């Protein structure tokens, strides 16, 4: 039942709201919710990462412009719909892509361009640290970026005063606090489940490892302080308020929850923080998060060990590439429409093309593609070359073309998940999907169910994403009962009336994906050859 306009106006006026600000891989989004977790207004800003000097990055100007634009659009929507200006908000939270490397000196100057999770340039550092700690350190993690910079003797290192993630940076900008949520922290450096902080023995190992370099800093001094969900992690400063709201209507003093990574906010947005639950987030990258009942028996290079926003251990299988190649092909088909003098809405195009995949041969007709825009650590490739391959005998038609591209979006993820399910016998009661691919009903669920061979559910809130998830965490901080756990808050208050649509794997689809994934594994030598022989400026 929808809240009426007067009730919403009163909630906004009284500050009975929570704001989530999320920096996703293709969009910065602002979502304002009420105390019943319903969305009041949204704003957004489209952006793209850039490959500059061999590094995937986002321009800092775009970070700031996107933050202000997304907030401004949300504010204007409130003014248009409800006729009032936002001056106060009950609580705010920041979410962003996990991992990566942002290093600052003691004046707050960014020392090198922001290095995102997408970079596969830290393999030497990641391997050395994994061996040193006997704990998997993925290439994306902040500590891998820092150690690779040390191995490469980068000139900025003596000036380092603080390193953080994108979410930690925005939080610092608005509150002045150098803090981070435990889920985001677990993508910077290993977390000790007992202390709910960085693993102290590994911190000591790292400092000993680099002692001969003679840096004035110790690792603990330059990392953000770790906070758990539900804890207050700072307030909007006067400068932060002016920075966020260029019209200067927003008042300072608004409390902030700990900044979190997109993995953690995805878990919240799908009610997947309990043990034996999981979720799959689909976007530029794709990752599955499974909340563990017990520790893994050994180190797996394809499985990250991170945490939920309340500190429970999570197995994370992360593939760097997912939707970028599909989006590129959709752009080509859109151009074809226009060349024929036709007009088509992007959403309609995706719906029509995705539904064709349901008419395809179960295995995609013998076609093969790799949507590797960047490197893929699960399959051992430091760079990517998008490829489409077929044999003369392949059944080359549009349905098979679409199914192949949807299947390949989950190819690397499938390889990583097999280690968790087949070798560790991890028990998963439910997996929920979220992200743009699930906006087309049925299709995305059927493809993922075939790949994972497990039921896949989508909630009514699946399209809300991480901005809504971090808004929920901000609301939890302000509105939880004493000693109310995050699991109970989500179960009993946020998701109690949410509808869930579950699709079970179809046997034919599962068998078809099985044939496809064998073709995918065998064809990796083609991708390797392309990486080795097609240099990035090969056009010229």
TrEMBL record:
It holds the Pfam family FGGY_C. Residues 279-477 form the Carbohydrate kinase FGGY C-terminal domain. Keywords: Kinase, Transferase. The keyword Nucleotidyltransferase does not apply. Its EC number is 2.7.1.17. The keyword Kinase applies. GO terms for molecular function: D-xylulokinase activity. Residues 19-243 form the Carbohydrate kinase FGGY N-terminal domain. Belongs to the FGGY kinase family. This is Xylulokinase. It comes from Rossellomorea oryzaecorticis.
């Amino acid at each position: 039942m929808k809240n009426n306009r007067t009730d919403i106006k009163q909630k906004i006026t009284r500050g009975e709201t929570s704001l989530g600000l999320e920096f996703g891989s293709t969009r910065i989004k602002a979502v304002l919710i009420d105390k019943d977790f319903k969305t009041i207004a949204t704003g957004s800003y489209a952006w793209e990462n850039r490959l500059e000097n061999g590094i995937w990055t986002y321009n800092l100007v775009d970070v700031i412009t996107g933050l202000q634009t997304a907030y401004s659009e949300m504010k204007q929507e409130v003014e248009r719909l409800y006729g009032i200006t936002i001056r106060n908000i009950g609580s705010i939270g920041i979410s962003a892509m996990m991992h990566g490397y942002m290093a600052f000196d003691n004046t707050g100057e960014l020392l090198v361009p922001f290095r995102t999770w997408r970079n596969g340039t830290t393999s030497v550092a990641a391997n050395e640290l994994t061996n040193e700690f006997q704990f998997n350190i993925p290439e994306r993690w902040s500590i891998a970026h820092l150690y690779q910079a040390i191995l490469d003797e980068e000139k900025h290192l003596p000036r380092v005063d603080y390193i953080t993630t994108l979410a930690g940076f925005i939080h610092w900008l608005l509150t002045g606090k150098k803090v981070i949520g435990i889920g985001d922290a677990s993508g910077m450096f290993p977390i000790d489940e007992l202390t709910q902080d960085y693993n102290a023995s590994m911190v000591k190992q790292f400092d000993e490892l680099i002692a001969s370099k003679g840096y004035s800093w110790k690792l603990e001094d330059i990392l953000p302080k770790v906070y758990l969900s539900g804890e207050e992690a700072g307030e909007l400063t006067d400068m932060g308020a002016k920075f966020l709201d260029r019209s200067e209507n927003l008042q300072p003093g608004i409390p902030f929850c700990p900044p979190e990574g997109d993995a953690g906010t995805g878990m919240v947005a799908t009610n997947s923080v309990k043990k034996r639950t999981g979720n799959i987030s689909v976007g530029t990258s794709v990752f599955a998060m499974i909340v563990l009942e017990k520790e893994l028996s050994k180190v797996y290079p394809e499985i990250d060990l991170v945490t939920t926003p309340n500190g429970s251990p999570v197995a994370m299988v992360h593939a760097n590439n997912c939707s970028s190649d599909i989006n590129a092909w959709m752009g080509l088909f859109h151009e074809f429409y226009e060349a024929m003098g036709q007009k088509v809405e992007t959403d309609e195009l995706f719906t029509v093309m995705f539904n064709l995949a349901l008419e395809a041969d179960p295995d995609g007709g013998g076609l093969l593609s790799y949507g590797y825009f960047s490197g893929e650590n699960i399959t051992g490739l430091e760079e990517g070359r998008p490829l489409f391959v077929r044999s003369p005998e392949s059944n080359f038609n549009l349905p098979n073309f679409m199914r192949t591209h949807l299947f390949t979006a989950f190819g690397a993820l499938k390889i990583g998940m097999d280690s968790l399910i087949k070798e560790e016998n991890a028990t998963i009661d439910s997996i929920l999907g979220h992200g743009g691919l699930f906006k087309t009903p049925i299709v995305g669920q059927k493809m993922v169910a075939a790949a994972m061979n497990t039921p896949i559910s989508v909630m009514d809130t699946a399209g809300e994403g991480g901005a809504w998830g971090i808004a929920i965490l901000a609301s939890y901080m302000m509105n939880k009962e004493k000693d109310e756990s995050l699991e109970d808050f989500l179960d009993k208050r946020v998701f109690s009336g949410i509808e869930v649509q579950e699709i079970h794997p179809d046997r034919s689809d599962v068998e078809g994906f099985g044939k496809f994934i064998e073709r995918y594994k065998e064809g990796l030598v083609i991708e390797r050859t392309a990486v080795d022989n097609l240099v990035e400026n090969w056009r010229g």
